[in-house]
Specification:
By secondary structure, the protein is α/β, with parallel strands linked by helices. Helix content is 36%, strand content 15%. Helix 8 packs parallel to helix 10 and helix 15 crosses helix 28. The radius of gyration is 28 Å and the shape is globular.
Length: 732
């Protein structure tokens, strides 16, 4: 069978991350899958990477290893692998990242269809997820540019130039090998080595296509990553820019012609990147900053397209100053939002630009200017789940603060307009990186979040930060993950401690949580032993609200509603089907309704839910924004290791634990107690046991009573009030 996909894997100094990367490629695909190959390049790695590669290659013939005698860097390692590539398509994967389960098989199937086209895709762009050291993830921030665009069916860069708003790295792009080799381009040396390939490929391609599937976990914030490393090698970017424009200037350039508008767009993007590198603290060493700025000015002189017009607003002023090499004026504009008095002539665009707001790197100029304003003693900023919306304990605190501390007005942070549209009517909000957001973050007195605010936002003296977290911990958390390297994979404990040092208050749900949070998050904050504000609604819910929720979800009276909510498992890229819900529905029969809710990290869902005649109804409720609604509607909860069990226990309803991989989870993640010894109800490890437990009705009321006594002692409906009275200036 011909090889459809060759995965090129440069390896250097990533011993800690390499096994996960290899496992995600090889172990997550059928052993007999021969339509792909992996060419790993040991780039004279100083650690055990070479040995690890050889051990894997001995077990799996799909992996071939090249051992270089001299270190070549990422670009050189990729170049060394290309003569060995046999696949119709080639994908360059970084060895400190990893792939979601099923990615390689799905991608090979996709490429098999591509190879049958009259005009196959030259570059297939895939979706991806950012993974952070604290375990959090973020969807592709440019996904909205790609979904629903002409690239879904296939287009050229000229037909959809908005493509150049997205990430230009090589790891989310799969190249047709013949097309790539025919470009006559090569990876650069040093930092930013891939853009000398990606830009020409996107510009020359006869057909580009976007695959709306998350195919890659890109690790952010790793120590040693170029995006967080101070080095003179950041100036390597200018050699890559030269290579891009050398390609554009070639008289024998292959592929599609490139219009002046596209050339201008590419130039604009390179300038923006160079200024972002210059502006980001800690990247360009202090003794190299003057030279780096001079190189930006030279880049303007060398590659500025004929008839180039500077952008409007603050960004345009910055570009003009960079083109002139006016480094002092540029620094003053960044620091204060104003130009030095002697340089204001000819810069009339500054004032209207500040009024219009800021974009890109200019947002830091505005943020620093806002920080010189006095604190607003009557402003509180709220956020939840990485700015996803109105939810969890911050929402409960917001509502109670409106009642008890009306002098403090609250505003919510959301990541984009789509999130804002889903907020409750009339809820005040700001969108990330807008001027209103920057001003709120710079001037608010109070901050309430169930995760951490961005580290780029400074904690000013006099501000009050309330960290609510978002669940009672069964699994190990924070600093306790030092003892669990699989779960802590890439976690930066110094950055975590930096975040903890901002907290003034940490909300705890129960004595168990207080005990473990105090060790997992060491800091000077005050622990608020109040219970979880988000559970007040459950403690206070009456029969009328419960009936209303059941009616809202269309639950038939007399049927038992089962909420199935599995948790996220590290290293798996989407919904994890450890349970066949359709088979469970057939076993339970028509007296049940299954409400299936996947974890909010996951981009996929449970798929086909049709179970056939005589089976329980299955309803996908993953998109429902408020999990407490589901708690109230459900008669029983089925989960595994999710903190939902602690919340649902407040309702004193049956809970069944379905944990077929308990030993693996316990070993990899680390846990604070033995769930099998101290469960909230029945515990099962297979589908037969789960069906039997649900059909039995309420098989373990004694276990639930003991669980509630330990984990729900503070859930009396008054947690939010206790938090508000301790943190905010209340009336009366």
């Amino acid at each position: 069978m011909p090889v459809l996909l060759s995965i090129v894997l440069p390896v250097h100094g990533v011993e800690r991350y390499l096994p996960r990367c290899l496992d995600s490629i090889l172990e997550a695909t059928p052993a007999g899958e021969s339509r792909f190959e992996v060419i790993a390049v040991d780039d004279l790695s100083p650690d055990r990477c070479g040995e690890i590669l050889d051990e894997y290659a001995a077990r799996d013939r799909r992996l071939r290893v090249l051992h270089l005698s001299e270190n070549q860097g990422l670009g050189g390692a990729r170049t060394a692998a290309l003569p060995e590539v046999r696949g119709e398509y080639v994908w360059f994967v970084d060895s400190d990242d990893w792939l979601p389960d099923g990615t390689v098989s799905a991608l090979v199937d996709e490429l098999a269809q591509e190879s049958k086209r009259d005009r196959p895709t030259d570059v297939l762009l895939t979706d991806f997820v950012h993974a952070y050291p604290d375990g959090g993830t973020e969807p592709n921030p440019w996904r909205h540019v790609l979904v629903g665009s002409p690239l879904a069916e296939g287009a050229t860069a000229a037909e959809y130039p908005a493509l150049f708003q997205t990430v230009m790295s090589v790891w989310n792009k799969v190249f047709r090998r013949e097309f790539l080799l025919g470009l006559g381009v090569s990876f650069g040396r040093g930092f930013y080595e891939d853009i000398s390939v990606t830009y020409p490929a996107l510009l020359a391609a006869e057909r580009l296509r976007y695959l709306d599937r998350s195919c890659y976990f890109y690790r952010r914030g790793r120590a040693g990553a170029i995006t967080s490393t101070a080095s003179p090698k950041h100036a390597d970017a200018f050699a890559q820019y030269d290579a891009i424009f050398a390609f554009l200037d070639r008289p024998d350039r292959p592929g599609r012609p490139v219009s002046e508008s596209l050339r201008t767009l590419v130039f604009d993007r390179t300038v923006r990147q160079a200024l972002n590198v210059y502006d980001t603290p800690g990247l360009v060493p202090p003794d190299r900053r003057k030279d780096f700025f001079r190189r930006i000015s030279e880049h303007f002189a060398r590659h500025r397209p004929a008839g180039y017009r500077f952008p409007g607003g603050v960004r345009g002023v910055q570009y003009r100053l960079a083109a002139r090499g006016a480094r002092r004026a540029y620094a003053e504009l960044r620091r204060t939002g104003r130009l030095p008095r002697e340089l204001k002539r000819g810069a009339r665009a500054v004032a209207p630009a500040v009024k219009k707001g800021v974009r890109s790197s200019a947002r830091f100029t505005a943020y620093n200017a806002f920080r010189r304003l006095p604190l607003d003693e009557h402003l509180a900023v709220y956020a939840a789940y990485w700015h996803r919306g109105y939810a969890c304990s911050p929402a409960a605190i917001y509502e109670k603060a409106k009642e008890l501390a009306p002098d403090v007005r609250g505003v919510w942070v959301v990541e984009n307009r789509a999130r804002a549209a889903a907020l409750p009517p009339g809820l005040p909000y700001v969108i990330v990186n807008t001027p209103a957001y920057l001003k709120a973050m710079a001037t608010a007195k109070y901050f309430v979040n169930n995760v951490n605010f961005p580290r780029t936002m400074v904690k000013r003296p006099g501000t009050v930060h309330v960290q609510t977290q978002h669940g009672t911990p069964l699994k190990a958390m924070g600093m306790d993950l030092r003892d669990h390297p699989v779960a802590a994979d890439g976690m930066d404990f110094d950055l975590l401690q930096e975040a903890v040092d901002r907290w003034d208050f940490l909300v705890s749900s129960n004595p168990h949580t207080s005990e473990h949070f105090a060790r997992a998050f060491p800091g000077r904050y005050e622990m608020l032993d109040t219970g979880y504000p988000r559970n007040d609604r459950l403690a206070n819910a009456g029969p009328a609200e419960v009936a209303g929720m059941r009616e809202r979800f269309g639950l038939v009276p007399g049927r038992t509603a089962v909420l199935y909510a599995p948790t996220h498992r590290e290293g798996r890229g989407g919904y994890v089907p450890l349970l066949d819900v359709r088979e469970l529905a057939r076993r339970l029969g028509p007296g049940f309704t299954l409400l299936v809710r996947t974890h909010y990290f996951h981009t996929g869902g449970p798929g086909d839910l049709a179970a056939g005649e005589g089976a329980a109804e299955i309803v996908d409720v993953s998109a429902h924004p408020t999990v407490e609604d589901l708690y109230l509607a459900a008669d029983v909860l089925v989960t595994d290791y999710s903190s939902m069990m602690f919340d649902y226990a407040v309702l004193d309803r049956p809970i069944v634990v379905f944990a077929p991989d308990w030993e693996e989870y316990k070993r990899n993640r680390g846990v604070y107690f033995d769930l099998f010894a101290e469960p909230p109800g029945a515990v099962t490890v297979d589908a037969d046991g789960l069906a039997a437990a649900l059909l039995a009705g309420d098989p373990e009321p004694g276990a639930r009573a003991r669980f509630r006594e330990r984990f729900c002692p503070w859930d009396d409906g008054g947690a939010a009030e206790r938090v508000v009275r301790r943190v905010f200036p209340v009336r009366g």
